[in-house]
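CATEGORY: protein folding

GOAL: derive structure tokens
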Amino acid sequence: MEATNRLVENIDGITVLLLISLLMVAIAKDLFYNRFISFIILPFNNKYISLYNKKDKLLNWFHIFFSFFQLLNFSIYIYFISKILFKTDTQNYFMSIVLIFGLLIVFLTTKILLQLGGGLVFNNHKMIVEFIFRKLTYLNYSAIVMLIANICLSYIAQNSKIVVFISLFLIAVINMIGWIRLIKNYQIIISGYFFYFILYLCALEIAPFVIIANYLKD
């Protein structure tokens, strides 16, 4: 009976967080309908990037709403991964998700500031802002997959490794599409700073995921 009550409490708490994230999407769609329509077909059509990469990039409210949506779902998704794949047992699941949410905000903010700082050092601030916008846009889009996975893992297929692996694959594909388009668009500039680009990938793109995986494993 105690285990059943705990499961219901878990679902109730996660339901609130999922509803808040969906509210962010609803507000973004209501306030920026045309932008939302362009965004929703992002992997199949680069129209969204072409239209909005040159103006009101990172501080646009549409981008902020979807970034919050992404951070919430990413936090819940990491919690499920740690629970299902790494058998992490947390007594207070809600505080675990809040902690993950806070760490993601700190990490993302630090990463953006380092990238902007690098842009100033190499006198490529405008390009770096466009670079960040593109990457965050695809990450925000992949949060849609995280949302679907979170719903499945909460109510339909609890503790399903299949759902986790399929969603991880789709998230990787979406972000890979973004990286391919980004590299193709900036290939001339990247080739001129190839060493620094590889260093950036290792330090700010690959290393954090290795650290997170080792942390969850331990």
